[in-house]
## 1
Amino acid sequence: MSNSPAAEAARRRTFAIISHPDAGKTTLTENLLLAGGAIRAAGAVRARGQARRTQSDWMKIERERGISVSASVMTFDHDGLMFNLLDTPGHEDFSEDTYRTLTAADAAVMVLDAAKGIEPQTLKLFEVCRLRDIPIITFINKMDREAQDPFELLDEVSSKLALDPAPLYWPAGSGGRFKGMLDLRGQKFVPYAKKSSTDEEGHPDPVAINSNAVVQYLTPEEQAEVEEGALLVSEASKPFDVQSFLEGHMTPVFFGSALRHFGVNELLGGIGAYAPPPKPAAATKAGTETHVAPGDAEVSGFVFKVQANMDPNHRDRIAFLRLTSGRFTRGMKLKAQNTGKAMSVNAPIMFFASDRELAEDAFAGDVIGIPNHGVLRVGDSLSETGTLRFAGLPNFAPEILRRVRVKDPLKAKHLKKALEGLAEEGVTQLFRPMIGSDFIVGAVGQLQFEVMADRLSNEYQLDVIFENSPYAEARWLGGDRADVEDFVSKHKSAMGQDIDEQPVFLGKSAWEIGYVAERYPKVRFERTKERA
């Protein structure tokens, strides 16, 4: 096997899993790892007892609530391919973390609850995938529970997402009547065995639909029903076309039950066969626009996430680097585009959720962790020459602003450092008003404040209080420097700075923002800011 950067990149499949909360995303993640041979037992999210905790949710609050609030990365080798699975938070309060994670993915698996179909958060995440031209594979989960008619589900995908659904399998019933699914390309029936998630035995092997063996699993009526459904859907939907999928017009559809490990092997096979390897990435080199190909000799990548205290015993701080080109080897020196400083990467990490091992080498498509103490930030581009800059990652204007103070006044300095650390991770946004000493914390949703309080308490031993803020809206300022400085000097009581010391206008209401924007047409009041 060739070990060239191009050949190795071609083996990579880097994909994210997206869904509405509770559609079964983390359970599917666990079972993909199980199917890929990366773990021996999938820890069901709702399973009781310490023995079967989910492998991918490592934060205390995630384990207590059975939700994912932080993106995690898992790498495993299966069937000659290297899979990098990016598990994203399903909760809408963490949509910014999800957006940043999707910048590192080449494809996405969209998980739908068979009973609920496309839910609001699924729709939002889909729009992000569409903005980034990310091809989508659909997995309709929880077929072992009562579900909508599969034709209605496909119709919803078609009408709400403007995607052509191309089912590769067709289910036989749902809920108590669920018997398995028919492989539409091979005319084989894949039987479903009712069993508990602790049962070590797998489901029966597929059998030909027109063979005598199928009578063990389907009555003649059930067989006729599944064959009729398969015939109808084959006539009604377009045949699966890989090119159309890669261009974002079509989605292959798989059915199953992640909790019962049914349909997961077929999904993993589909990801391996159809998800694209890493593509050339748009960048600027010394101010000139260019594209960086996975097979290029120079090692390069961008930081899409920073996570502190994954290991509370070591106060660590890890930058997640998505490699875009070259062959990275341990001990290599890389330069950040913003400082030009070279850093030796002596202890790069390959992730397996909360487990990790040293990465001796890595290629385009891989995600490695770089331990660092505040040197690297979200949006940084790294390369051997330090001249490459990839498009920055966006910050979105927060929807809720709160004042934060620590109960023990002697720990005020400690609070500043902790808040800055969390803001650098992108957990929340931090604004420092020009007048007064309070910190203003911005978030998309209430759950972010709960996670923040939990982490400040557990990781930094800080007891904090969130109070109502006099401000309701935050906007970054853009425009000519003289115009911005003139505006800032006239509105000091409503001005703050973000963590990058960029000027931010803190408005008491959306109406005030609109009113001020009308009076100062030369100043832009921006809802997003590029981090780089």
## 2
Amino acid sequence: MALVRILAALSVAALTPPPALAQQRVVAARAFPLVEAGAAPAIFVSAGDAPVVEIAANAFAGDVERVSGVRPRVSQGAPGGQNAILAGTIGGSPLIDRLIAEGRLSVDAVKGQSEAYTIAVVENPVPGVARALVVAGADRRGTAYGIFRLSEQIGVSPWVWWAEATPDRRATLTLDAKTIVQGSPSVRYRGIFLNDEDWSLRPWATANDPSGDIGPATHAHIFELLLRLRANFLWPAMHKVTSAFNQVQGNAEMADRYAIVMGASHAEPMLRNNVAEWNFEQRGEFNFAKNRLNIVQYWRDRVRANHQYENVYTVGMRGIHDSPAEMNQGSDGVRLLEQVVADQRNLLKEVGKDPAAVPQVFVPYKEVLDIYRKGMKVPDDVTLGWVDDNYGYIRQLSTKAEQKRSGGAGVYYHISYWGVPNDYLWLDSTPPALIGEEMGKAYATNARRLWVLNVGDLKPGEKGINYFMDLAYDFEATSKLGQRGWLKRWAETTFGPRQADAIAALLGDYYRLNFARKPEHMGWNTAETAPRPTEFSPVAYGDEAGIRSAEFRALDERAEAIAAQLPAEKREGFYHLVLYPVRGSALMNAKMLGADRSFLYAHQGRASANLYADSAAEAYRGIKKATAVYNATGNGKWAQFMHDEPRYQSVFNMPPVGRVTPLAQPGLGVAVEGAVDAWTQQSPQIFEAADTALRVDRWRTQGASNARLPVFERATDRRYFIDAFNTGVGALDIAAAGSAPWIEIEREAQPGGDQRLWVSIDWSKLKAGASASGAVTVSAAGASRSIAIEARNVAAPRGMLVEENRIVAFNAGRFTSAQPGWQRMPDLGRSGQAIATSLELPSAADPAKTPYVEYRFRTTSSGTAKLRATLLPSFALSAENKLRYGVSIDGGPIAVVNADKRDWGDAVERNAMISATDWTIAKAGEHRLRVYALDPGVIFDSFVLDFGGLARSYLAPPETITR
């Protein structure tokens, strides 16, 4: 996607070409005037060229009109005019072929390549034209990509139609007309899978497509988007609510006109849609072992009908509607599936095609991977379509032998999913950093033939789709940008340079927060059960839940502030692409965490519990309001598209809340950081919360006390809170005082007149190296409560990892040294400071001979301890590898851990898995931890050394590092 610079008040030029930098050559030339004095040169295409060329030319003419108000004429006639734009395909356009034959245009660098093109300015190209901007494609898609390159150069986003991404208006446009030689893309087939379309895309298309279905008119918009994204492939929607792609008249023809390669999903062999097209009464059982002839005939009919188009055939077999096939359950599944593939390939022979020359993909999804692992033989020319686990972690990639297969390999990847352990169909929250890491593994293991992305309803997966396609088009250049660089470039090309940094930072925080827990997973339940309290603790580590709520509120405020700074015409696009997903996430967290807090506060006897119950209801209504705004954008164009309750899962409902009947008079209550229970003068009656005690037990930490705060350490200089609250009606005059001058108290107002008292230590008033005890006394309504304080004034060098309250906690990126074989993974993980073992690293037999990272830390405790390592729930790189690492403390024996042993469902909802090893720390003091790289692609997020002080929380504790 080109970056755009305003060269003058009324002119535009591209700063850089789109992401395929590594494969292109650019030669400077005199600028080409696109719009001057209300006129634009005509665009000439050849009548005999592929239809997509004229389609792209008309789309570009529309883009010029969007920007300047002037629409260039598109003509199949003889070129004319002082300036002209000539576009065509080598070998398919007499116009282009003539320029080549006369030596006026050099195409040697792209001729014969797949989807390559060149753009050049040619002087006196044909009689009557003084100067022409020429776009010549090596094939029909190459020509279309070259034309849409011009759209990028004038600042038109691929999402101009699908997300109201309005470009800047300019009366004069000047193209920075460099000679561009663009080579073939990194991945041969690059596309999307429209899936789970029941909630948005299908209802919207029903109301807007003349077919009353996801028909040719809707697909035309989808296909144009794919071309603008430099994609070329589609698996069409296939649910019961939708007619099969090939059953809707005009769909297949429209795909061919737009030069889009068609396939069908991993569960839909040979371009069929089993849900819509298999008729049990007429065809019998969908069981290959029992009904082979009818099933083969069913596939034969489609191959005969569609073989003239450009297709990638899915081979293999699953059951109806993405279910396991019966034959896949038995011991003979390998033999039967091999026979399925053989029969399918024979159908290609029947229509006169060499199966070895026809693109095919075998997708070992779910139980099919188990069959493949049992030794199934897949023809060498068939692409192996590796799959993720539906949550963004690829289950297996090619071994060294598989990498040599003539059919190569590819990946089927998800940013949207319907299924166990839980759906995520509403908002796109998969970070580009994770997509980049996982697809980077695929690219490194030669999975470069086909990449397909499950995008659900298409929207609101725009950013994930865009990044995935940029990677697939030019992996090297895009991957070098990293998440931050790519988000900035995307924001700049979509909304302009002024707010690009702010938008990129905002989205980086959006992905980080949602990576810890997706909005759809905030119910801590399955699709079939009621939500439970979250594990975000409202009592531990400075109020973990409150910190998350505050971060999301701030995120929403930042998004609103950015929107206010954007030109009015860009705000609807910003709402689609940024503000709505931010706001939806923030409100879902406010709803669930507010409901949680209402139960805790009811349990503690706070009158303010009712306010948090009300705030949860307000957040629930806020989601509805935000969705209504979305669906009203584009002058009603997007009515019915956004659905904030896909599958009507219970997490989208208003959750239960806790309430109290406050006492008639004000009363004092005191709650202490770390403790679930509170002290009160007299507790009010709890109602509508019969299971309140059970709900709050999830945050209870053994040994926590409501009579003392955690120990204050000078090294970490942390503060802790005491909550003073009202149990009744009326104002409560709260007083708080420390027993010694070194105790400092800062008040923070809370809803309902409650106060959060932040306690910290003035270390200058304590003797260095000594410990001291004191108390904070809270008084109101004739009652008082004292909370014990203990402080240790022991200094440590700045940046040192230290023990605090019997734990040492640190992010994986906090190492003191690292040997080659490790790499930082910026913006990846809950901490955003993940590290990983190198993909080039061979699996090791001797841990002591493998590269390590080293951490140094200081403890005040000794004795038994657990080292808890938090890793991303990725899989072993290939069948040749495992997911092992080694750990050693103070030079002791290396403990080897197989991280592939996991509770998968829990791990993918957390985006984290924890493995623990037991240690004995001989004495207090400085220590050395080494983590050894035994297998490639193991990703670490954080570590905690626990002497028994670890509180119950969802995230890892804050780092215990000297400030």
